[in-house]
Amino acid sequence: MKNYLKNLYGWLNERFQLEDLVKFMGKKYVPVHRHSVWYYFGGVSLFFFIIQVTTGILLLFYYKGSADLAFESVQFIMSKVEFGWLVRSIHAWAANLFILSAFIHMFSVYFEKAYRKPRELTWITGMLMFFMCLGFGFSGYLLPWNTLSFFATKVGTDIVNAVPVIGAPLKVFIRGGDDVTGATLSRLFGFHVALFPGIFTILLAIHLILIQRQGISEPMHLSEKPASEKKTMPFFPNFMLRDLLLWLIVLNVLAVLAVFFPADLGHKADLFASAPAGIKPEWYFLFMFQSLKYFPSHILFAEGEMVGILLFGAAGLLWLLIPFWDRKSARGERNRFVNYLGLFAVLFIIILTILGWRS
Amino acid sequence: MENVQGKPGLKNRRDFLKYLLGFGVLGFASAVIYPVLSYLKPPKQSEVEVTSVSAGKLSDFPKDSGKIVRFGNKPVIVVRSADGNLHALSAVCTHLECTVQFKKELGLIWCACHNGKYDLNGRNISGPPPRPLAPFNVVVKAGEIIISKIA
Predict the structure, then answer these.
(1) Are strands B124-126 and B74-80 parallel, antiparallel or unpaired?
(2) Which domain holds residue A344?
(3) How far is the alpha carbon of A272 from chain B, nearest alpha carbon, in Å?
(4) Can you give the pLDDT of all 151 residues of chain B as single tens digits?
(5) Which of A92, A275, B24, B130 has the greatest CB tally within 10 Å of its CB?
(6) pLDDT in tens, A318-342
(7) Looking at A267, A296, A313, which one is the last position of a domain?
(8) Same domain membership, residue A109 and residue A60
């Protein structure tokens, strides 16, 4: 067996110079320090993406993306298809944990200021993937076509309307018409299973190639230390084996959650029913949902909603572009303002999520 | 190159070719993009224009209750107040388009999504809704509640 593999490797190597690639992969080192644990969340997020693609393809074999059939097909998956409940529950749980792990990865990179020169584009691609995760969550939420998802989509797409100039046509584009109907389901289905995964894969490839090319970022406090005092471990195989072990643990956690807390389905969307009491968006939109509640209906001449959306949009843009305005970190100086801003963002998100949860 | 630049005629000819190519690319791109954008714009579907619908019998409508009625492809809320008056209003919340409901305990119309409140005449009285609910005509003809658009 070993000989066959060696021969295969030799055959490929002769044609494609695999040795260079192995050398390229092997020269990456992971800095070892007290914050090293945060390095694992990028890999965990990647693992969730792989799980989502796999379970997503499995769900596609039975799911039907039309208003008449969507709810029934998900019901069919949950009740008739063998292990259908498990596949769907894993998809639903992994979606939530994916976003959680992406949140943690993003904030750890932020606080370590790993976005600073020369890793600006790694940050940008990562942030774009993060926004796409939210898009995945939003578009996937509608697919079972139940009451909650119907109203969540109504609200979410109507918020787009508050954006000046492009808002109104964008809303019609996403909805496939003036209202949330079967046409909206078809569009979001297309976004969820084709457009988003395609773009996400390209961003992910760029993200990973950049990391491979530049190596893993070293925290700023380490750069003052002499090279002899710095500890590192090779990415391959040491760090990767740890990564894989963690993936195994994550898979187990996922299985436990999916088995003991399977995803529920609710009631089929009724376009002529009132929104049920206690309706709430998914937890990762909750902080925005909750803060919009505090805006009065009018602020000066504008609708409160519009002011809120614009503020969130501006904050997101500021966050996305941080490698370009945080000049201090780029020069290797300490930037306390960035720390306080990050701390404020974390506290803001946590407190408003809790408030939204309890209301 | 020197040769080319030395002869003004040739340079013009090169510029001409550049413009030709540029316009060609531009034309080609718009020939591709225009149909794609047009395709993405959902076509207007002809709907049967609804001007009035029946909301059911008045005898089936207890006092102090509300119901969502289908008006074409829009929901309309019909409320019979405690004193027996009938109100018909668009059921689409003016805030973010959730469907509102009659809240008996408050004697108000309430939106569950963001806690918006309207009085029975559709006036937005609390919460985020920026505008009142659009009113509909409501009449009782031979014991049947008829809702119609206000002309």
Answers:
(1) unpaired
(2) 283-359
(3) 6
(4) 455 555 667 778 889 999 999 999 999 999 999 999 999 888 887 777 788 898 888 888 888 999 999 998 889 999 998 888 999 999 999 988 899 999 999 999 999 888 889 999 999 998 888 899 999 999 999 889 999 988 7
(5) A275
(6) 999 999 999 999 888 889 999 999 9
(7) A267
(8) yes
Q: Contacts of residue A272 in chain B, CB cutoff 8 Å?
A: 68-70, 75, 99
A120 touches B at CB < 8 Å: no
Cα A271 from Cα A278, distance rounded (Å): 18
Task: Name the residue in chain B with its Cα closest to that of A150.
Answer: B98
Task: Quote the number of domains for chain A.
Answer: 2
Do the chains contact at A275 and B97, CB–CB below 8 Å?
no
Helices (H), chain A: 2-16, 18-26, 40-60, 70-79, 84-112, 120-142, 147-160, 167-175, 182-190, 196-214, 240-260, 283-293, 304-320, 322-325, 327-330, 336-358
Nearest chain A Cα distance for residue B26, angstroms: 24
Tell me how close the Cα of A136 comes to any Cα of chain B, in angstroms.
Answer: 20
Q: Is the CB of residue B146 less than 8 Å away from at least one CB of chain A?
A: no
Q: Which residues of A touch B91 (CB under 8 A)?
A: 274
Contact in structure between A42 and A28 (CB atoms under 8 Å) = no
Number of domains in chain B: 2
Residue A275: strand, helix, or coil? coil
CATH number at residue A67: 1.20.810.10
**Predicted structure pTM score:** 0.89
The answer to whether residues A232 and A311 belong to one domain is no
Asked whether residue A101 falls in the same domain as residue A241, the answer is yes
Domain of B114, in residue numbers: 52-148
Among A175, A177, A305, select the one facing B128 at the smallest CB separation.
A305
Contact (Cβ atoms closer than 8 angstroms) between residue A110 and residue A123 = no
Are the C-beta atoms of residues A223 and A145 closer than 8 Å to each other? no
Dihedral angle at the C-alpha atoms of A58, A62, A65, A66, nearest 10 degrees?
-170
Query: Which residues have C-beta within 8 Å of that of residue A196, sequence separation ≥ 6?
Result: A132, A135, A136, A139
In a domain, B47, yes or no: no
């904050």: which residue's tokens? Answer: A315
What is d(CA A21, CA A331) in angstroms, rounded to the nearest whole number? 33
Task: Note the pLDDT tens digit of each residue in A55-78.
Answer: 999 999 999 999 999 999 999 999
- In Å, how far is B91's CA from the nearest CA of chain A? 8
Phi, psi of A102 (to 5 degrees): -65, -40
Same domain, B62 and B96: yes
